[in-house]
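User: Hi! I'm working on a homework problem where we have to compare a predicted structure to a textbook description. Could you give me the structure for the chain below?
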Amino acid sequence: MQTNNAVIGQELDSFSSKGSTDAKLRQEVNVDKGVIKPAARTIYNKIKAKYAGASEKAKMQYEQTESRINDLLTELKTVKENLNGRKIMSFLRLTFYYTLPGWLYVIGDVMFSMELIVKGWGLGQQNAIERYSLAIAIGLAPFFVKHIIDRFFEPSLEKGSPQLKKLMTAVYIGLGVLMVFSFCQIAYVRNIFFRYMKTDSGAVDNVYDILFANHGATVAWSFILVALMFVIGGGFLLSVSAREFSKRGAYKKLVKLENNLKIEIETEKEKLAELKCEHVEAKEMFSEWSNKEESIEQIENELKYAYLNGFQEELSKMNDDSSSKFSIDEIVGGVNNFHDFARQLVDHHSVNKKGSKYNA
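Assistant: Happy to help. Predicted structure tokens:
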């Protein structure tokens, strides 16, 4: 059984100082049980309280850490289930199937507007910035469509009522059919252009005059449907692209959270093991001090030792010419041994003090 130096140290210093003071005053060795006994009891109570508090503190921290680990494990399980339920598109597929085609629709609309609207209207002929600003403004119409799709179409399709989902599905199918029809109509117009530009290359009249004279409605609808293709295709593809990139971002955050949770759980487990050791150690030390009388007697002996050690060290300083042959280690324990040793110290002190009343 070891005493706690942090608790008993101050009292040991106090008794050592008292022994040193008595030696300086040439007083006899005086270990007052009326002082040592209460001090020993006080120290014992402090040590017991310290170990009891340390044991309870470690136990409480252990339980808190264990609860924290359980919470982390629950959160980790939720994150894993969330990850398993997510399907994300590969970066290359997302880029080449949706993002890049969507931007090509936007660029095509810009070029279409530049060639047929800006130049046709004769706007900004003296300033290139004006021409490009107008063409880009018209060409960015797919982004407005994308906003409508993001805000109304997709939420209704994913979380709407069954009837609303059926309606949105029908709209999507209808737009798909319209895109196919537009593509076929543009193909028909290409056939007309090919006929007049290749087979009638020697005609005197302007080929566009012939086209609009014979197929005016078809050519006009081709311009309308091309613009519609740009808006629908660009809007929907960019909407899908943005949504899938958002899913990828959320997926990466969940993966990062999963890794952080695993690291934190391992750290908390290490902390839990340390707290368990602290709790067991404090509990064992508390048990060692369960024998009150034996513990108090040990503390008393240490206080006596401190007093006599201080007394002897002071005597050694005051009597450098004399060689002291006494040692504090002669105290083995027990009242008789202690008093015998005290008498030896008094006799030694009296012999070395000139004019002492104890001198023969």
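For your comparison, note the following. Residues 301 and 334 are 9 Å apart (CA to CA). The chain is about 85% helix and 0% strand. Good luck with the assignment!
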